[in-house]
From TrEMBL:
Taxonomy of the source species: Bacteria, Bacillati, Bacillota, Bacilli, Bacillales
Gene3D superfamilies in the record: 3.10.450.540
Residues annotated as transmembrane: none
Organism: Geomicrobium halophilum
CDD domains given in the database record: TcpC_C (cd16428), TcpC_N (cd16386)
InterPro entries from the UniProt entry: TcpC, TcpC_C
A Pfam family annotated for this UniProt entry: TpcC
Name this polypeptide is given: Conjugative transposon protein TcpC
Length: 337
């Protein structure tokens, strides 16, 4: 029995070994990957668009921030510049009394002590105990200020130098021994007038001022320059028509009233009445030229007048623009040349 079973299993193994499983042929059809490729491409495009949009937004935001920062810096610079400009009028008011105290010097001890106290009020404080040289005065006679005018102001970083044209007198008394011993000594007074620039360095802080350095003298600059003015080559188309005599007669009558009359007397002759109110006497006009324009006449002339009291000659060139009103001539505009 056992042998029969063993024989049966042996036959089954041999039969199974003789069975050949056919090899599976590879398919020639490739899988469809187009959807996956399209998804990848569109994902890449979307990513690029997102990155580009983000870059533009960052650029705009950066530019806006930069512009705001630059505007803030400019505003700060403008504010500092405005704050750096010294108020000339108030500084001049502060320095006027300083100029008086500095320039007026006497060899009297009490006067010198008073001057020292006055100057100390205007001088800046020093970190050391060293005194300003302007306090130490040794002199003979006195210095007396006659006049002081603000000449110019030089502003630098943190400081301004105010230059005053000062006219002052140095006066000294000198005792002269007499030739005769019995005579009393004679007192001779020497006066010397000078004009120089007194330069005063000043600083300002919170609307208050102080002199920061010793004042110093320099020569007064000559402001008169060698300047040549070119004469205007004026070309006018002279009018010699029927109204020429009437216009010149009106001009003479007008200047007669303008020189010696009152403003009310010119209401019918001038669009905006004005007069010299009798200060001058009208003498006449010379070099008259009339030009006809679109709606008016232009009269260029030299007017001669004399001062009422002194008889001093006064000549000026003027352009009169003359129109018509209610059939009469009227000065619309008068321009001094």
């Amino acid at each position: 029995m056992k042998e029969n079973i063993k024989h049966l299993f042996s036959r089954m193994k041999r039969r199974k070994a003789n069975i050949h499983k056919p090899e599976k042929e590879k398919s020639g059809i490739r899988k469809d990957t187009s959807k996956r490729t399209a998804f990848a491409v569109w994902s890449l495009i979307g990513g690029l668009l997102f990155v580009s949009t983000l870059a533009v937004m960052l650029s705009v935001n950066t530019r806006s921030t930069f512009n705001d920062l630059r505007a803030a810096v400019n505003d700060d610079d403008d504010q500092q510049e405005e704050e750096g400009d010294m108020d000339i009028i108030t500084a001049d008011t502060f320095l006027r009394d300083f100029v008086d105290a500095y320039m007026n010097v006497s060899n009297d001890p009490d006067a010198l002590e008073q001057r020292r106290q006055e100057l100390d009020h205007y001088m800046a404080s020093r970190e050391t105990e060293e005194e300003w040289d302007i306090y130490d005065v040794e002199m003979e006679g006195e210095r007396r200020l006659e006049n002081a005018d603000l000449f110019h102001v030089d502003e630098t970083d943190g400081e301004a130098v105010f230059a005053y044209a000062v006219t002052y007198v140095n006066e000294r008394e000198e005792e002269i021994e007499p030739e005769d011993d019995d005579d009393d000594p004679q007192i001779e007074v020497t006066n010397e007038e000078k004009t120089l620039l007194l330069n005063i360095p000043v600083v300002e802080q919170d609307g208050q001022y102080a002199v920061t350095r010793e004042p110093y003298f320099t020569a007064v600059d000559d402001l008169a320059g060698s300047i040549t003015v070119e004469n205007e080559d004026r070309q006018m188309d002279a009018y010699v028509g029927d109204e020429q005599e009437a216009i010149l007669a009106f001009v003479n009558e007008f200047f007669e009233e303008y020189a010696s009359g009152e403003e009310d007397d010119l209401t019918y002759m001038m669009q905006d009445p004005e007069s010299l109110d009798g200060t001058f006497n009208y003498e006449g006009t010379v070099n008259e030229t009339i030009e006809q324009q679109e709606d008016e006449f232009l009269v260029n002339t030299e007017v001669q007048m004399t001062e009422d009291v002194t008889g001093l000659n006064y000549t000026f060139e003027v352009d009169l623009y003359i129109g018509e009103s209610n059939g009469n001539y009227i000065v619309e505009t008068m321009d001094y040349q």
